[in-house]
Every structure is written in C-alpha cells, then in structure tokens.
Amino acid sequence: MNRVFQTSMEVGVRVLVEDLLNGVQQHTSSAYLTFVALDEQGKPSPIPPVIPETEEEKRRFDDAGERREYRLALRKRSRKS
Q1: What percent of the chain clears pLDDT 90, i.e. is strictly above it?
Q2: Which of 34, 32, 31 is nearest to 5 (CA)?
Q3: Structural domains of the chain in order of their starting residue, each with its CATH number
Q4: Distance CA 76, CA 41 (A)
Q5: What is the arithmetic mean of pLDDT over 23-45?
Q6: Contact (CB, 8 A) for 27 and 33
Q7: d(Cα 70, Cα 78) in Å, to the nearest integer?
Q8: Which of 9, 14, 63 lies closest to 38, judged by CA?
Q9: Is 81's pLDDT higher than 80?
Q10: Residue 69: helix, strand or coil by DSSP?
C-alpha cells in the first residue's frame, strides 16, 4: 500500500516472472491501483490513515500524493472542456 487518502487507497503492484530452472526473476510490469472503501449503501466511506515509517514507504507515500494531484487536475481540466 502506497498511501491512504480519505476514502481511497493506492496500491502498487509489481509483477515478476521467475525461471524455474535457475530461479532468476525478471520484472514484467508494474501498476498503481486505486481502491475506494464503500459503506453498506455503496457510498464512499472514510478509512484510517497509514503512516509511512521507512524511507521507502515515505517515498512511495509522497509519490502517490503527486500522482493523485495530477489525476485530479486532469479530471478538473476535462470537466471544463
């Protein structure tokens, strides 16, 4: 998990393939997935924050915030068109 926002969270996924004969792994793809917490009525529901502790967690936390700001700016711009 990269970051939790008010009702959503970003999760980073890294897919590897492994050669079973020699154990060598190779990165094949990566993705950032966003999930929204829903209540019983299907409405977005607040979720508790996750506090990054390590330097890697802090970097992923900050990067997720930048990606979110970019997505929201794109959405706002497309609504004006």
Answers
A1: 94
A2: 34
A3: 3-80 (3.10.129.10)
A4: 27
A5: 97
A6: no
A7: 12
A8: 9
A9: no
A10: helix
pLDDT given at position 71 = 93
CA distance 10 to 32: 6
Residue 80 binned pLDDT confidence (cut-offs 50, 70, 90)? confident
Q: 27 and 15 in contact (C-beta within 8 Å)?
A: yes
Retrieve residue 25's tokens. 């792994």
Q: What are the tokens at 29?
A: 């793809």
CA distance 13 to 33: 7
Residue 1, class by beta-carbon neighbours within 10 Å (0-12 exposed, 13-18 middle, 19+ buried)? middle
b/e 67-79 (16+ beta carbons within 10 angstroms → b): ebeeeeeeeeeee
Task: Please state, for a pLDDT cut of 70, what percent of the chain lies above it.
Answer: 100
Structure tokens at 46: 């607040």
